[in-house]
Amino acid sequence: MGRWEPNAQERLRHAAMELFQERGYDRTTVEEIAARAGLTERTFFRYFNDKREVLFSGSKELEKLIVDAIQSAPPAMAPLDTVATALEATTPGFEERRAYARKRQALIAEHAELRERELIKLSSLASAIADSLRARGVARPAASLIAEAGIAIFKNAFERWVEDTGEHGDLSHHVRAVLAELRLVTAGTGAAPSSLPPTKATRRGRRASP
Which residues, 6+ apart, have CB-to-CB distance to 90 below 8 Å? Predict the structure, then answer.
């Protein structure tokens, strides 16, 4: 095949997910992924450092999208609202890949090395968010705190969205809902709204309660 294959990165990503589902993540090799995509191992390593990175290759694009949204937000917008609005801006891209996101999330949950890689990526995203907030005039300690809160909102909303069958809405809806829940909890006004779908972790906690 020629050196430059059309849609090679997407073909590799699709092939990897197919094999992870069929053979399991641990038993799948880079050679097999490349072969399934009709490409060479050399082409694989042109796009990804290792097979783990297939599942995280869009992190830089995600980070740029969020940072750009923070930078373009109205100056008077409150910092946490700015971050939430930026998180909502990721909705269209995720909606196009909802089925893939579900499979990816399940794989990450099953493998410690993938969970570790995800934490590293989220830490990098938190740093980028904090830097963007400081550029808007938010003090350093507050910017870091708000960035971490934003990551917590994103993780929780993303898990709800992945588990959602369509009854509750898109990712943007879940970001707004989790933000509202966070405000209720921190204000000490009681439990979260009943309309919020519980996550798997929440359901496990409920079953474990006496």
Answer: 62, 65, 66, 171
